Structures are given as C-alpha cells and as structure tokens.
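Internal tracking record. Fields below are filled automatically when a chain is submitted to the structure queue. Please do not edit lines marked as system-generated. If the sequence contains nonstandard residues, flag them in the REMARKS field before resubmitting.
Queue: standard
Priority: normal
Entity type: single polypeptide chain
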Amino acid sequence: MLEDNSPPARDPAFDDLLVNLDRQGALYERLLDLSERERAAIGRADLAALAALVTEKERVIAEAQALERQRTAMCAGWARHHGLAQPPTLADVRGWVQSPAYRARLDAAALTLSQRVSRLRRANARNADIITQAQRMNGGLIAAALRHARHPTYTPQGGAALDLRPSLICDYRA
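SYSTEM-GENERATED OUTPUT FOLLOWS
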C-alpha cells in the first residue's frame, strides 16, 4: 500500500483555523512570560512593575478572547454542516478533516496550545499562592501593629507613654 504524501487540497477555512490556533498559542506563550515577570515583581514588592504587568496581561487576555471568539465563529459553519447545536471542539474538527497532513497540523497546534494553557494555569496558581501568602503575612503584621498601637505604653514617637492609670496620691504631712 502506497502512502499518500501528496500535498492536501488547499482549504482556506482550515488554514485560517490553524493560523488562529498558532496566534492563540503565541499569546499564551506571552502570558507565560508575563506571569514569570509578575512573580519576580511580587518577590521584589515592585508595585509599579506589577501594575504595568497586570495591564499588559489584561491586553493580551482580551486579544486571546477575541481570537477564541473568532475560532468559535469559524467552526460554527462546520458545526451546522455536521448537525451540532454547540460549537465544535478541536477533536470534532479533527474528525471532519480528510487530509492526514491537515490532521497532523491540527494535532500539533492543539497539543501546543493545550500544553501552554496547562503551564499558564500552573504559573497563575503559583502566583496566586504567593500573593495569598503575602496577604496573610501583611495581615499578620498589621494585626500585630494594631495590637502594639493599643498597648498602654505605646507612643507613635517611640517614647514611653504617660501612665494614665488611676493612682492614689497620699500626703503624709499631717
């Protein structure tokens, strides 16, 4: 049996889908980079850098969401053609593709995207844990400071507070 190595007939819609998936993969790689930089900024307590990184992440996430909406719209026609009421998964699309070469390209793009999403999920969970730990530490420090501030001998200037406890003064001159 001869293997079919001839190039597949060009399918512009499928090519557009692959371009979309590749662009999404690149955006997730960018988000991974931003998450690593975010973790470093958290470690340095660099709030200005952290704010800039969060703004950039929001921009990249919005772009990824737009690409996902575009991918869903691209696949909607295929879904209708195959009698699906909901947007198809990449596994659904793979089943509809006739060309082994296109199937291999789709598998590679889907695997890359899946791996990057998993790595990003772990990075975000790690960053969330770091932020939660920092919030707990700060909460503990604030609570300790408040307890200290209510202590009767505390003064904001660091000196000894006046002893305002009631006292009895006795005059022994009589």
